[in-house]
UniProtKB/TrEMBL annotation:
PANTHER family according to UniProt: NATURAL CYTOTOXICITY TRIGGERING RECEPTOR 3 (PTHR47904:SF1)
Annotated family: Belongs to the natural cytotoxicity receptor (NCR) family.
Superkingdom of the organism of origin: Eukaryota
Record protein name field: Natural cytotoxicity triggering receptor 3
Organism: Pogona vitticeps
Keyword Plastid belongs to the record: no
Keywords: Cell membrane, Disulfide bond, Glycoprotein, Immunity, Immunoglobulin domain, Membrane, Receptor, Signal, Transmembrane, Transmembrane helix
Transmembrane parts of this sequence: 142-168
Signal peptide: 1-18
Subcellular location as annotated: Cell membrane
Length: 182
């Protein structure tokens, strides 16, 4: 038996080929408590898979990220099989985020003929919703400007009217007319 035949038999029996499977994830993402987040994961392989699987874990503790896990019960949505096999995406969406969802999430992909491959992980930071007063929209700034301008004109008109009344009162009192004869 020659060396080529031995190699071919070993490859067929073990199911391991000299192919690569690489899983990629963004390093970090941030989302607000109560909202949802899309955790992205994609993979590249040297073959076009017809079947395969993927899963997510949260570190520390390697907690499975799926709807049946108590921590994530009913809050996880996975991509469709077509997106996984054709678009090579293994994304998940976590809804109704909670502060304890912060942590490192790792995506794993398994395809026939390859060893399972893990991404480097995406660190999710869940922040509390902002309770501070936000800046008013530009429309409010225009309304405030118009209001202040109107108040300025009203004050000006009132000041002129008061000044005019005082002037005529003083002028009439100097001319000897009493205010009751006006």
């Amino acid at each position: 038996m020659d060396l080529r035949t031995l190699y071919l038999m070993f490859t067929l029996i073990s199911g391991v080929r000299a192919q690569d499977l690489v899983v990629s994830q963004p390093g970090s993402t941030e989302a607000t408590e109560g909202e949802s987040v899309l955790l992205r994961c994609s993979y590249n392989s040297t073959s076009r898979p017809k079947v395969g699987s993927y899963w997510w874990v949260k570190d520390p503790g390697q907690v499975a990220v799926r709807n049946t896990t108590q921590e994530f019960m009913g809050r996880v949505i996975a991509v469709k099989d077509r997106a996984f096999l054709v678009d090579r995406k293994a994304d998940i969406r976590i809804n109704d985020l909670r502060h304890y969802d912060s942590g490192l999430y790792r995506c794993a992909v398994k395809l026939p003929g390859f060893r399972e491959a893990f991404g480097n992980g995406t660190y999710l930071r869940v922040v509390k919703p902002s309770a501070g007063i936000s800046a008013p929209p530009d429309n409010y700034m225009v309304l405030i400007w118009i209001l202040l301008r109107g108040l300025f004109y009203a004050f000006g008109i009132g000041a002129v009217a008061l000044g005019t009344c005082l002037y005529f009162e003083k002028t009439k009192s100097l001319n000897g007319a009493s205010p009751s004869t006006w």
